[in-house]
Amino acid sequence: MPLLAPEFVFHSEGWLREHVVDVDNEGFVVSLRKRQMGDVVEQMPGYLIPGLVNAHCHLELSHLSGQIAEGIGMAGFIREVFRLRNAFSEDQQVASLSKAWHQLSDFCTVAVGDICNTDATVSIKQQHPELLTHSFLELPGLDPSRAERVWMHGETLRQAFLELPHSFTAHAPYSMSRTLLQRVYEHSRHLSIHLLESLAEIELFVNRQGPLADAFHDFGIVFPSFPDHHPLDYLLRDLDPQSRVIWVHGTLLRELDILRLMKQAPDSFFCLCPRSNRYLHGRSPDLSQFAAVRHRVCLGTDSLASNWDLDLWKEVREVLSLPHPPDFHTAVSWATTNGAHALGLGSKLGKFRPGLRPGVMWARYTDAEKLQKIA
Ligand SMILES: [Zn+2]
After folding, report:
1. If you count DSSP H runs as helices and E runs as strands, how many of each does the chain have, helices first?
2. Ligand 1 centroid from CA 172, angstroms
3. What global pTM score does this model have?
4. What is the pLDDT of residues 207-237, one digit of tens each?
5. Which domain, by its residues, includes 80?
6. Any bridge partners for residue 47, and if so which?
7. Does residue 324 contact residue 287 with C-beta atoms inside 8 Å?
8. How far is the CA of 32 from the centre of ligand 1 (A)?
9. N or C: which end of the chain has fewer CB within 10 A?
10. The domain that contains 145 carries what CATH number?
11. Is 335 exposed, middle or buried (0-12, 13-18, 19+ CB in 10 A)?
12. Residue 303 C-alpha to ligand 1 middle, in angstroms?
């Protein structure tokens, strides 16, 4: 491949100009250096960007693409997922998963943080190791008397994922008994937890009422007495400060909450899924709240059950269109370097460094509709 000489090359500190990137035919970076007289280069307008890292997805829900109405909120979403749980054959589910998986590559994604309640994604992940994954094995359960059973299911799940990078995780504050939450915390130091996605979550903790409480009641789920009156208090009560936690959504997080999370769990990341929030709730995260932790923000699409596609570049464009947007370089860092660090892949992806194979993508303009894969 000729030396690539784009107008701008991504670097963690900012855009590099007058630089060339040498990439071999297998996509490994040979060098990134200043352009020299006599270099034979392929001149390119625009931006050279490492492959995208989708920090939050649920690939096993891909068959629910287009099945759930927009704007129905969290409780409505849970009801729909429950209603549709047996509506698709295994063949349909496998076909949808395969389509979604190839969509990820088409959208210039090189790694995905995937939430798993089943082993449905194991074989495709093993067959296609070129797309790196971290599987968060999710163990939800509100009934403390069933915690042991959920845990046994988790152990079985773990056996299926043994050959793949994985860790146990809690689902969300409103879906975990304290017994189960403590057990997950004891056994995992790499978590991905849904947090403050909707008002219903806060309402549940403050008043023990609202649409989530109603949904659980209708499902006959035994409701525990949470020891705390705010989701944050509940999640932080037993959390080991050494844990790396990806706090997902955070559409209602305030700066004080964010600073508190950083203080108690300094290796926290904040994964925004703005298009999923718009799809389900018709609202967006308040980016002004994240100003102090811009180096810890990453992006995810969430699942096809609550998004139109798995195009992470569209999430970049979405954050750039919101009030208090980050600058373009920061937004690209969220979709690359920061996502890689959040998934424990920071030494492999998210930067052009000799010996790495981070994926080489090209954006003609800052508002380019699509990223293009170069290598
Ligand atoms: Zn999610």
Report:
1. 13, 15
2. 9
3. 0.97
4. 888 999 898 888 888 777 788 989 999 999 9
5. 52-348
6. 8, 363
7. yes
8. 36
9. N
10. 3.20.20.140
11. buried
12. 7
